[in-house]
Amino acid sequence: MNSKSKIIPWHSRFDLQGITFLFFLLLCLGSFPALEGSGRDLDYWNNLKGFALKLFPPDFSILRSTLQGIWETIQIASLSTLLASVFSLFLSLGAARTISPLWVVSITRMLLNIIRTIPSLLWAILAVVLVGSNPLAGIIALTFYSTGYLAKFFSEAFESADLKAQHALRGLGADQFQAFQYGLWPNLRPIIWSHCLWMFEYNVRSASIIGYVGAGGIGLHLKLYAESADSWNKFSLVLLCMLIIVTVLDLTGERVRKSIRDRLEGKSSLIKKGD
Amino acid sequence: MRVKNLGICVEGKWLIRNLNFTVRQGEFLAVRGSSGSGKTTLLRVLSGSITPDEGTIEKENLNSNECAMIFQDLQLADGATAITNALSGCLGRNSFLSSFLGFTAQEKKQAIKLLNLLGLSDKLNQWTSTLSRGERQRLAIVRSLFSRPRILLADEPTSSLDEKWAKVSLELIKKDVEGRNGSVICSLHDSHQARDFSNRELFIDSNSPENWSIQDVESKKS
User: Fold this and answer.
1) What is the ipTM of this complex?
2) The domain A62-264: what is its CATH number?
3) Of A3, A7, B141, B206, whose CB count within 10 A is highest?
4) For B44-97, what is each residue's pLDDT tens digit?
């Protein structure tokens, strides 16, 4: 082989991946001035130590009201995930290229992009303006926010689904809906459930924040304790409860998603009774 | 089923040309040929999922749901249980509303009976994705038989089965379909299986698309 043919020209390294990496490095270099902060000579370490000491010990006298706030947060997350799942199922049919015509796909995707562009906090402000400061505002806000994401995930699941079983059932005389119910849906169901579960976890975290703008949930408690100067130990109890809830949800969700993955890959021999 | 002057062309190459045969009621026709000779394509054309390039296929007094196919790649719903896959064979007989709510006890009993015959009685509630290839193939056979077809097109239905289950499966297919005075058109690689179960054999040769032949198995045996 000719030795010249082994030489790779230097500019060939600059493919799209290389250019974006270089761009990112330049962006980081240009961002260094942001590390200067306020420019004042502050004792960061002592500030942090002082703040951390104020958080301990957590004040358990407010445990009851905190648990009520967390329960409200879970209610907001549950109902918004449920409503968003229902809306997303319909919207995802319109957004899936394998199911709907191109013009319907384009319009639906544009709508979903707009919904996703608006952050959950802004949805919460809009909902509070609409229905006032209560948990309903939180449900409305997170329903819209979650729909933008779930409909995208569902439509991707529809597009990547294996349609062979559905076609086989059509060949055996099943109508379009029967073939969907027994040929396609059993394969999609675990994936869709996995996405819903992830969204629920996400919504519990989001529902903790939107309370800051009055959309119900534990966020309102966080705001109250953060704004009063001597309530940092109450603030820490709320954080502790949230940490426990989020960790439990995370572990449970991961376990369920693993069983779903195993089932889809044929590793699990999970027995389902009464089908 | 009557096939007249059938021609199938794939990517500019003729697989079969001027094919003529009639499948009689109660007959088992084995389709033989080397790999890539066009057996699967022929069965798909006979099922109606592919339009032939030449000729016609006449299916007298046959509704669309009376012709079933066992696919080589099985085409089962992996996310459903074995019993649900078996039961989905009867969807063509059920209305949209009744199947939306599930299946009747009678239908479940009938499906379980078929699953038992093919050794799947202990797999009823197991996810299909967790079954072995051989079990999945037997399940695909049950699903097709449960649709009670008058014409069953089977594309190498025993390719993943051991000798025992291949024999049991072909016996069940033959007995079940022929019991309803139906017909079976089945592609088979194994010459012994073809001789033991079929009435006639259709040989196709991809090298010479018009050089097909139909032989009577009984006359070969004698």
Assistant:
1) 0.85
2) 1.10.3720.10
3) B141
4) 999 888 899 989 898 877 777 788 999 999 999 998 999 999 999 999 888 888
